Amino acid sequence: MNLLRTKSLEQLQSETSTDQGLRRALSRTSLVSLGIGAIIGAGIFVLTGQAAAQYAGPAIALSFVISGLGCLFAGLCYAEFASMIPMAGSAYTYAYATMGEIGAWIIGWDLILEYLFTAPTVAAGWSGYFQGLIKEFGLALPACLAQAPLAYGPGGLTATGSLFNLPASLVIIILSILLVIGIRESAAFNNLMVVTKVSVLLAVIGFGCSYLLRHPGLGPRNWTPFIPPNTGTFGQFGWSGVFKGAAVIFFAYIGFDAVSTSAQEARNPQKDMPVGILGSLAICTVIFIALSLVLTGLMNYTLLKVDAPVVLALQAANAPVALRFVVEIAALAGLSSVILVMLMGQPRIFFSMAQDGLLPSVFARIHPRFRTPYVTTIVTGAIAASLAGALPLSLLGELVSIGTLFAFTLVCIGVIVLRRTRPEFTRPFRTPWVPLVPILGALVCVAQMLALPAETWLRLVGWMALGLVLYFGYGIRRSKLNRPANSEPAS
Questions:
Q1: What is the sign, positive or negative, of the torsion defined by CA atoms of 130, 134, 135, 141?
Q2: Number of neighbours of residue 186 by Cβ within 10 angstroms
Q3: How far apart are the first and last CA of the chain?
Q4: pLDDT band (50, 70, 90) for residue 491
Q5: Calpha distance 273→263 (Å, rounded)
Q6: In this structure, are residues 438 and 416 in contact, taking their beta carbons and an 8 Å threshold?
Q7: Is 430 within 8 Å of 80 (Cβ atoms)?
Q8: Cis, peptide link before residue 432, omega less than 30° from 0
Q9: Helix, strand, coil percentages, rounded to 5, for the chain
Q10: Mean pLDDT over all residues of the chain?
Q11: Rg, the chain, Cα only
Q12: Predicted local confidence at residue 6, as pLDDT
């Protein structure tokens, strides 16, 4: 058995041209919207103010530029692969073509940390925003259904006395049902959520700019000094703080790669996938930079270390009360679209792995009417709903971060490998300045991984060890590449 045996690019392209049951319903606009839906979530509504207050000051805008460049390097690599191999498997499929089956399994197993665990992580945040919103109307959930039964802190897991986080589980169940019904309907819902949150963010930016123009001395006063002097500790302001801020807000960008998991449902993937990936990144970066400048202009950065810095800045500027409610609604819309895109991505990873024989064939079933991978969607939704209801947000979030960065790193390396092994292959989109761009992308991602706590690395090692046990116990015997042609998989 050859663990490094790869799928040929010709075979992969042949599979993309074969109707495998998935409906090609996503336009270029829908793909850009999916990317925006995955990127703009709790990060922009919370992380911006906290990173400004603790690390970068008004220069948090520069942190977004640096972080955006790091994502751009990885995004360019994803765009090349997505145009060459427009399949649902995303980085899993790319690894199969460059690093062999064992590499594909490792990255496929790793992607579960990003997609399967991101949905419950964001759902836990959604629950908090939802409960805050209904409190404005004098409503409240019973305490036993308002949070997870476990809390995570320096001392480990502790009991909260609650039974279940009901809102977090319900939103995942509802969105999973929507995904089973159809990709077109799911994309339409996502488009609505994206329009809502982008419109509100633009309204906040517009109001802030107008207020700063009417009070010409406020902005320069709050923006001075633009890069606060370092306190003597690395990462606390100064240029080291700008880079530390970039490391923190990097996670506000996570999600653009989810566009690549929908490649087999795109109408013209060779042309539209790069636009979806890079277009969503560009739009979100501009919004992030503009909003960070507005927030630090409306009030002193030292006051922004709160859970809702956008609302606080609006209150400081005497914004209409209605705008505060709209921002809370936009936060819910933003989180909803992130959950939807993550729940859309994970089933398609399972779908691709099942088609290759690495997972049970039932995972590759397509609904006869809706033409969606309904089995994997239901399995993903059930697991994610259980995790969201039972586990705390902070524990889930740590698992997401390192898994995502690991996937980004392998994709960047994969572009270099494939340029050397198959330089003649047609690339509808080519990553510029190879190997410089992929190397920079990999270095940025590895640097972010090294900044994570040692406990997070231990969890990654444990997760990967479990995955390898499953691969050698099941996947390697069932793999289509590792068994003779026309033979049946081992029982």
A1: negative
A2: 26
A3: 17
A4: very low
A5: 7
A6: yes
A7: yes
A8: no
A9: 70, 0, 25
A10: 83
A11: 22
A12: 81
